[in-house]
Amino acid sequence: MSEYSAGKVDDYADGDRKVVICGDAEIGVFRIGDAFYAWHNRCAHLGGPVCQGRIMKRVLEPVDADLTVRSQAYDESESHIICPWHGYEFSIRTGQHPGNARARLKKAEIIVRDGEIYVRP
Length: 121
Prior knowledge:
about 120 residues; mainly beta; Rieske Iron-sulfur Protein; 3-stranded antiparallel sheet; 9 strands; about 0% helix
């Protein structure tokens, strides 16, 4: 299986991403802390360029006893990617949509070797 270069580890700061062309596929490579994650740049909803969307902390909407939402908060431990087409959000660590277990991103294999990052679609 072919490997494609995604740059050097040192080129990525915490929270960075890069979209890499890998043959017929586009792969988004993300760095969260010291870990790297790679996802196909195709939203599970309608195929939008999800890896090019906004990165933000997971949005939490605490529900009151009367089932109304009075505020929003952010989970600082979980970063999400937001698809620019329709706003679907996915965990960068797991690729899963927080409210729909069937909606998830397609994972790409990531290899870190000698300070270089490679992906396999």
